[in-house]
């Protein structure tokens, strides 16, 4: 490779990368510090002499205690988890079947269907939330987890289908053909030969879909109304600000706890997530 | 980017297949027909997407042409809602904001994301950890991280003001979110912060497919860093870049949660986007027809972007 002098390496590499790292991570550090800082320190004028905003000498868990005692935070956490898992499951199921059909089978309208699924992938939820709210009401699904479990797949299925279709195309057809010579049905070959090979692809799609549903906001905001039914993002926004007063300690504690599950899932499966992410934009 | 391992060889094995040996159980025998199997496999997807995308889309178009409001079945009013929105100064502001926000946020995300991708493409210790932490803004729910930003922009207790004040850059507080112009740029900054990792990681994946020999050859020919980027890296990276930009434009143009949490469209409706204004009119006020019309104003732009994307994909396949 190209050889470079040490000072150049600092100016063109270490310093910019450090700036990027600090910029990326500072808001999370700030979330943490705010969550464990007592109120007396939080709301101290920034011109005060003894102000030391970047750390705290009196860490406290009172905000976390308030979060569990004064709000229905544990419910939100459970709701978010439940909805994310079930809608991811549904989307993987549909995506697997549809992806296989589009990658392997010849049938009329295959091209049209493939294109329409891709187009729905690009339809943003904000385009449809008003009529959808009406439809959810008509289906008597308003304020139930099913409103979200059934609507999240609209943006997860196209993604899963797209990703898995690409994955299936990389699996040699001969594998299936061998199985069929041995007497397997087409369906059986798909189930027992192709799907097990596709496990890494399924995992990538699943991880990515899970983080997407954990992150979803507008449908949850519009379709749910009672406090204990809400998901974390909506609960934090609508239940923790009373009037015009922001309880920043509690808010940041909630934001932190609400981020941890998804960050954990992500950290265990970084490589799969990255595959899902890069696969989400490529065929 | 993966290529089929054995693309065109299908059928060569199947020729020797004696049909009689395959004896599927009776219940699944009908699935041997490719058409029937395809229909069965696609049915769940088509039903779900039909019910919750195609139907709401049609219903949204109908709503936008009616004066429906919550608890009140409307009747056809033609293009009245669209005309009314167009005459509304807040709508015009939201319309302009949406383009402004999308344009600048996309530019910044592309420039910074490209820079970060180039940095991450080098080998250094702790690379995996650095890459994993760089993606955090993209993983953490936007609403939650935007709250952290809102707190950092707080009018009284802003840590950024404190930092700038202590380092001597400012003498009075910057009105981050209490001034319309500042607030818009703050929203663009937060959007850039959140979306940049997506650019960086996908562009990095693209960079890793570029053969290092090309760079070697270029530098032997005397090309400096910038020239190597411009004449070697960039042309090879263009296809990935286009796709990433298209995705980002769609997401930024239809953004809702960031503005909803950071400014709520304020101060004085100066930072509304089409989606947040549609929410305010359609859900908060309950004028479903007008709200649906406002969100449909997004359609032409989305349509053009999707069209570009499809055309590009077709060209790639051909």
List keywords for this structure.
heterodimer, A: 283 residues, mainly alpha, MetI-like fold, two-stranded antiparallel sheet, 73% helix, globular, B: 318 residues, 67% helix, disordered N terminus
Task: Give the structure's gist in a few sentences.
The complex is a heterodimer of chains A (283) and B (318). Chain A is built from 15 helices and 2 strands.
Question: How would you summarize the topology of this molecule?
Answer:
The complex is a heterodimer of chains A (283) and B (318).
Chain A (H helix, E strand, L loop, with lengths): L5 H30 L3 H4 L19 H9 L2 H32 L5 H12 L3 H14 L6 H7 L1 H17 L3 H9 L4 H12 L1 H17 L2 H6 L8 H8 L1 E2 L2 E2 L1 H21 L1 H10 L4
Helix pairs in contact in A: 1-14, 3-14, 4-7, 4-8, 4-11, 5-8, 8-11, 9-10, 11-15
Chain B lengths: L33 H31 L15 H8 L1 H32 L6 H8 L1 H4 L2 H11 L6 H8 L13 H28 L4 H9 L4 H29 L3 H6 L11 H11 L3 H9 L2 H19 L1
Outline the structure in words.
In chain A, 73% of the residues lie in helices and 1% in strands. Chain A has helices at residues 6-35, 39-42, 62-70, 73-104, 110-121, 125-138, 145-151, 153-169, 173-181, 186-197, 199-215, 218-223, 232-239, 248-268, 270-279, and strands at 241-242, 245-246. In chain A, helix 4 (73-104) crosses helix 8 (153-169), helix 5 crosses helix 8 (153-169) and helix 11 crosses helix 15 (270-279). Chain A has 15 helices and 2 strands. The mean pLDDT of chain A is 89. Chain B has one domain: MetI-like fold. Chain B is built from 14 helices and no strands. In chain B, helix 3 (89-120) runs parallel beside helix 8. Chain B is globular, with a radius of gyration of 26 Å. The interface between A and B is large, with 116 and 122 residues.
């Amino acid at each position: 490779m190209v050889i470079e002098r040490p000072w150049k390496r600092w100016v063109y590499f270490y310093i910019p990368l450090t700036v990027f790292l600090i910029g990326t991570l500072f808001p999370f550090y700030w979330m943490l510090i705010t969550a464990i800082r007592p109120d007396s320190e939080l709301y101290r004028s920034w011109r005060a002499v003894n102000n030391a905003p970047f750390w705290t000498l009196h860490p406290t868990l009172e905000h976390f205690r308030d979060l569990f005692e004064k709000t229905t935070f544990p419910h939100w956490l459970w709701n978010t988890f439940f909805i994310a898992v079930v809608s991811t499951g549904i989307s993987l199921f549909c995506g697997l079947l549809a992806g296989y059909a589009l990658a392997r089978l010849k049938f009329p309208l295959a091209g049209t269907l493939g294109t329409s699924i891709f187009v729905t992938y690009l339809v943003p939820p904000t385009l449809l939330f008003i009529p959808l709210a009406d439809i959810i009401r008509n289906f008597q699904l308003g304020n139930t987890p099913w409103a979200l479990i059934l609507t999240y797949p609209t943006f997860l299925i196209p993604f899963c289908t797209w990703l898995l279709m690409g994955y299936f195309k990389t699996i040699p057809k001969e594998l299936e053909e061998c199985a069929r010579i041995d007497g397997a049905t087409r369906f059986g070959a798909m189930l027992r030969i192709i799907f097990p090979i596709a496990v890494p692809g399924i995992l990538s799609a699943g991880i990515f879909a899970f983080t997407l549903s954990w992150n979803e906001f507008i449908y949850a905001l519009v379709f749910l109304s009672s406090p204990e039914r809400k998901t974390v993002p909506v609960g934090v926004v609508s239940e923790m600000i009373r009037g015009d007063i922001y309880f920043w300690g509690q808010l940041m504690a909630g934001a932190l706890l609400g981020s941890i599950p998804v960050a954990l899932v992500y950290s265990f499966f970084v490589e799969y997530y990255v595959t899902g992410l890069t696969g989400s934009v490529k065929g | 980017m993966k290529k089929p391992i054995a693309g065109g060889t299908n059928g060569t094995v199947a020729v020797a297949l004696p049909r009689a040996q395959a004896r599927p159980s009776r219940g699944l025998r009908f699935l041997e027909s490719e058409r029937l199997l395809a229909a069965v496999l696609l049915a769940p997807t088509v039903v779900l997407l039909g019910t919750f995308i195609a139907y709401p889309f049609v219903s949204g178009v109908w709503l936008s042409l009616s004066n429906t409001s919550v608890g009140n079945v409307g009747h056809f009013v033609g293009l009245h809602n669209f005309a009314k929105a167009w005459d509304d100064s807040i709508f015009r502001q939201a319309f302009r904001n949406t383009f402004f926000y999308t344009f600048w946020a996309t530019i910044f995300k592309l420039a910074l994301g490209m820079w970060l991708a180039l940095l991450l493409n080098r080998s250094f210790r702790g690379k995996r950890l650095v890459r994993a932490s760089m993606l955090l803004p993209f993983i953490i729910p936007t609403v939650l991280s935007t709250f952290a930003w809102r707190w950092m922009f707080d009018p009284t207790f802003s840590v950024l003001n404190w930092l700038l004040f202590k380092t001597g850059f400012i003498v009075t507080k910057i009105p981050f979110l209490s001034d319309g112009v500042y607030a818009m740029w703050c929203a663009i900054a937060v959007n850039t912060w959140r979306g940049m990792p997506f650019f960086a990681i996908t562009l990095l994946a693209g960079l890793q497919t570029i053969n290092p020999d090309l760079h070697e050859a270029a530098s032997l020919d005397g090309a400096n860093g910038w020239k190597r980027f411009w004449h070697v890296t960039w042309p090879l990276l263009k296809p990935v870049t286009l796709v990433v930009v298209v995705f980002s434009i769609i997401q930024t143009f239809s953004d809702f949660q960031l503005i909803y949490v950071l400014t709520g469209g304020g101060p004085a409706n100066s930072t509304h986007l089409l989606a947040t204004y549609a929410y305010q009119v359609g859900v908060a006020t309950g004028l479903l027809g007008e709200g649906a019309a406002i969100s449909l104003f997004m359609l032409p732009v989305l349509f053009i972007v999707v069209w570009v994307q499809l055309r590009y994909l077709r060209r790639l396949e051909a």
